[in-house]
Amino acid sequence: MNTVRSAIFYLGYFTALLVCGVLFLPISPFLPLSARYRLLNLYNHFIVVWFGIACGVRYEIEGRENLPSGPCVIQANHQCEWETVFLQVMKPPVCTVLKQELLKFPIFGWALRLLDPIALDRSRPARAMKQVLTQGEARLRSGLSVLIFPEGTRVDPGQRRRYNKSGSVIACRAGVPVLPVAHNAGECWPGRHWVKRPGVLRVRIGAPIDTADKTPDVVIAEVEAWVEGQLQEISDVPRPESS
Q1: Residue (of 50, 44, 52) closest to 11 by Cα position
Q2: Residue limits of the Phospholipid/glycerol acyltransferase domain (predicted)?
Q3: What is the rounded CA–CA span in Å between residue 135 and residue 79?
C-alpha cells in the first residue's frame, strides 16, 4: 500500500514540477524577488499538502506564533527533502544555503537559482565558509531570512551529527535572532528511499534565540540543545546519546 501511495504522490510531484516549469518559470525572471517567491512557492505549498493527502501523513505543527516579523537565521535538523520544501513557505522570503549541484537539475534547479540562494561548492570548504558568511550577512541586511542546516547534510532519524556554527556566526554578525526548528519528517519521508510512510509528522518552531552579546559558540549550543530536546519528545525513533 505504501508503494502505491508513494507512486501516486510522485505522479503529482512531477506533474506539479512540469506545470511550474511551463507556467511559472518563463515569467519569474521578470518579477521582483518578493513576487518571484510568492509565485514559485505555490509549488512548495502544493507539495506539502499533496504529501499529506497522498501518503496518509498528518501534520502537527506547533509554534507558528514564534515566527519573528523581521529577518532571522532559521536553523533546523535535516532529515529529508520535506523540510527543505516546508521551510521555504514557513517564513518567506528565505534564502537557502545549499550545495551548488542542486542548481543543475532541470526546472527544480532553475527555480532555485531564481530565489537567490547561497550555493556552495562543498569541495572547497574554506571558500564555502567565506561565501556563507559574506553572502548570508548581505541577505539578512537586505531583509531576507537565511535557512541553514547546521548538520550540513541529511542525517537519518536516530542518528546524530555535530552542529556547525556558521549560521550562528551570520546571525551574531548581523544582529538578528536565530529561529530553531525541530521535526521528525524523515520518519515519514525517508531520505534514502522513495517509498513514503504514513504517520504523524511533527514540527516544532522554537522561540527566537537572541544573539545580542552572545558568541556563535553559545548560540549554536543553545540551538543544538533545544532541537535535540524537542527531537527526544517528537521522534518515534530513539535519539542517540550526545557524543
Answers
A1: 50
A2: 72-186
A3: 25
d(CA 94, CA 87): 8
Q: 179 and 205 in contact (C-beta within 8 Å)?
A: yes
Band of the pLDDT at 243, cuts 50, 70, 90?
low
Find, among 49, 61, 56, 60, the residue nearest to 91 by Cα. 61
CA nearest to 91, candidates 158, 14, 37: 37
39-76: per-residue pLDDT in tens? 999 999 999 999 999 999 999 999 999 999 999 999 99
- CA-to-CA distance for 188 and 234, rounded, in angstroms? 13
pLDDT at 157: 95
User: Can you tell me the distance from the alpha carbon of 141 to that of 209, in angstroms, rounded to the nearest whole number?
Assistant: 18
Sheet holding 199-205, edge to edge: 57-62, 199-205, 178-183, 73-76, 145-148, 94-99, 118-120
Q: What percent of the chain is modeled with pLDDT above 90? A: 79
Give this prediction's pTM.
0.93
Task: Give the E-state strand segments of 30-103 in sequence order.
Answer: 57-62, 73-76, 94-99
Task: Kindly calculate the radius of gyration of the chain based on its CA atoms and give it in whole angstroms.
Answer: 17
Share of the chain above pLDDT 70, in %: 99
So what's the pLDDT on residue 236? 92
Residue 193 neighbours by CB distance under 10 Å: 10
Instruction: Evaluate if residue 242 carries a pLDDT over 70.
Output: no
Q: Are strands 73-76 and 145-148 parallel, antiparallel or unpaired?
A: parallel
